[in-house]
Amino acid sequence: MRVFAAIACACLGLPAAAAALASDINWDRVDLPSERAAIERFQAFDQRLQDVGWKLVRGNAAFCDRVIPSIGLQLQDLASYGAPEVARAALGMEGDFAVQTAARGSPAGLSGEFPGNREVTRLARMDPNQWEAGERLYWQRLTKAHDHVDAMLAEHGGIEVTFANGESVKVGSVDVCATRFELMGEGSRAVADGNRVVIGIDFPGFSYPEEVFAGVVAHELAHNLLGHSAWLDRNGRGRRNVRKTEREADRLMPWIMANAGYDPVFAQRFMEQWGPRHDGGLLRNRSHDGWDERAEFIAEEIPTIHALIESEGAADWRTHFRREIDPQKGL
User: Fold this and answer.
1) What pTM was estimated for this model as a whole?
2) Do residues 156 and 35 share a domain?
3) Would residue 228 count as lying in a domain?
C-alpha cells in the first residue's frame, strides 16, 4: 500500500555482516542475537514513525486533494537487506517477506493479525517470495509488492493476506492522504518529496514524547499536502521561494496535528524544543526563519484552529488556511 510502502532500508546496518554475499559469510563470526536486536531496533523506530504518520494522514483525509485506500500495513523483504541470509537466520524465517509494521489504529493494526516479522506467503493470489530478486540490497521487489497491495485495495477495497502457517486474514481499507513514511537507517534529516516523508533514524525528535515528535512529521507532511515540491519545480528553488514554503509548512503543522487528535500547542512545543539546539543559530540556512520566529508563526494559528474545532468539529485547512504562495503559479 502506498501510504506505508516504506522500502526496508538497504542501509539497515546488520552489525556483523552488513554487505556480505551468502557465500562470503563466516557464520562462526555472526552474532545472530545482535543481528536480530539491530533489526528490532530499526523496526521500533519505524513503528513510531508509522504510528504517528497514520494518525496524521487518516485524520486529515477529508481535506486532502489526493486520497487513497490503505490498511496501514508495511512489509519487509529480506532481499533488500545487506545480508539476506543473515537476516533470515536472525529472524528465524524461511522466506523473504514478512510484516515490518502495522500502524497503531489502522485496519491492519486493529486486526491483531500483523505482529512484526510474521512471515507472509500471499498477497491476494500472489506470492511475492516467488518474484525474482537480486542477491542483496534489492529494494525493487518490495516496491512491487506494495504496488500490488495498492492495486488490490483500489480495486476491491481490501485484501486477503496469507501467512507462513497457512492462516489468512481479510482486511478492509479506509481512506488516507496519499503520503508514505520511510525511516532511513542513518542520518538525522527530515525531508519530503511530494509523495514521501523520509526521516533519518538519528533525528533528535525520536527522543521526544509522541505528541511533540508528531510536529516534525506534520511539518514534512504539510509540504506534500500543499504541493510544495511541484510548486518549487515550476517556480524555482531560490531562497525566497523555499522560505515561503517552509513558513507555510510550519503554519499548517498545528492544523494537521489537531485533526489527528493532538493538541495543536504541541506543534509550537516541538519548535521550541528542537529549535534552540538544532536550527543552526547564526549559521542556519537562511531559507528558514529563526526557530523563535517559526514558533511564533505556529502559535498565531492556534486560536483559529481551536475556534474551528469548537464550531465545526475539525480544522478545515483546505477552506480556512491562508496560503503564503499562489498554488496555481507556474501551471
Assistant:
1) 0.90
2) yes
3) yes
